[in-house]
Design goal:
By secondary structure, the chain is mainly alpha-helical. Helices cover about 50% and strands about 10% of the residues.
């Protein structure tokens, strides 16, 4: 952009190019022309410095190293060629409700549940919130958009069902079930089948676990009987050079679905491997364990999360607590 004087008309004009075309604007004085030039250059610089959602996400992951690799991969995939790809190149501050609904509809077509959709919404909102905190963008346009309602199913499997199923499992899965139960672990390659003996602190009698879902560290105090059996297995595995707590004849377990489904069929029960974690929490609460202690065993970020998920169990604990209260008549008679 530049400012020029038109002598034959005694006018000043600002000249610039826009969409490959030359444009001009005329002014009576040089001062007015220079002021217009300054305003356009400032607006142009501001536009050039604005970050797209994709660019903001790149800076976010460079700064935030606490995300679990799988969670990070899911977000990157969503932005690169998934449900958020259509607005990845938009300025982060210009995202709107239409973009959110478009992402939701795209995820629904792929069979995603409301819970999964809410997770992706939360991921993008976290990136935007970080951008505001770092003064990279001025506002978080998704801050006030509420999540979709999620109907939480009432927990069905019981410890009796788990006992039936346990008898039908191969030995390597029986030990995996014990580990998932007594350490309140999520199944899969990250927490359960990725767990190594390094996590066991034999002196303190605890297991320190890197959680796959949140990336946070949790410290579990296992049942004494489990810890004794674990110590015996540890001694054997160390001599054989096996690092994994749960393995199949020294080999890392990559898939257990076929064996699990066959055992469920034989036992006549319907149960997911993930249900073991829920059964563990339910049993602890039902037998009078403190809610905060159970929350720590599960690795929840706060007690409120545990209370919300297991409200059907804690309600029974409240009833028992109420039954322990003395009547006022008894107090008066004393």
């Amino acid at each position: 952009m530049s400012v020029h004087y038109l002598k034959n008309r005694n006018l000043w004009f600002a000249k610039w190019r826009e969409n490959a075309k030359e444009k001009r604007r005329y002014f009576k004085t040089e001062k007015e022309a220079r002021a217009f030039e300054s305003e356009r250059l400032a607006a142009q610089n501001e536009t050039e410095n604005r970050l797209s959602l994709g660019e903001l996400a790149i800076q976010f992951f460079r700064a935030r190293t606490d995300f679990h690799p799988r969670t990070k991969a899911c977000i990157v995939s969503c932005l690169a060629h998934g449900a958020a790809a259509s607005f990845r190149d938009k300025y982060a501050e210009s995202l709107n409700r239409h973009d959110l609904e478009r992402m939701r509809n795209e995820l629904r077509t792929k069979g995603a549940s409301n819970h999964t959709i809410n997770n992706y919404q939360a991921y993008i909102r976290a990136i935007l919130a970080w951008g505001v905190d770092q003064d990279l963008i001025c506002l978080n346009p998704w801050r006030d958009y509420k999540k979709l309602k999620v109907m939480k199913p009432i927990f069905q499997p019981k410890v009796e069902d788990l006992r039936k199923l346990y008898q039908e499992l191969p030995s390597y899965l029986q030990w995996a079930v014990k580990t998932a139960f007594f350490l309140a672990l999520r199944p899969g390659q990250v927490e359960l089948f990725g767990l190594t003996w390094v996590a066991f602190n034999w002196r303190r009698g605890v297991v320190i676990i890197h959680q796959g879902k949140s990336g946070r560290i949790k410290t579990v105090v296992p049942h004494e009987a489990y810890l004794l059996e674990a110590r015996e297995r540890y001694e054997v595995d160390m001599k054989a050079g096996i690092p994994w707590v749960c393995h199949r004849e020294g080999q890392k377990v990559l898939s257990y679905r076929t064996a699990w489904e066959l055992a469920c069929k034989r036992a006549g029960v319907k149960m997911r491997f993930y249900d073991i974690r829920h059964i563990a929490a339910t049993e602890m609460l039902a037998n009078g364990a403190d809610l905060a202690a159970v929350s720590a065993q599960l690795g929840h970020s706060n007690v409120a999360t545990t209370g919300a998920v297991y409200a059907h169990v804690t309600a029974g604990s409240q009833a028992r607590a109420a039954s322990l209260m003395p009547s006022l008549d008894d107090i008066h008679k004393r």
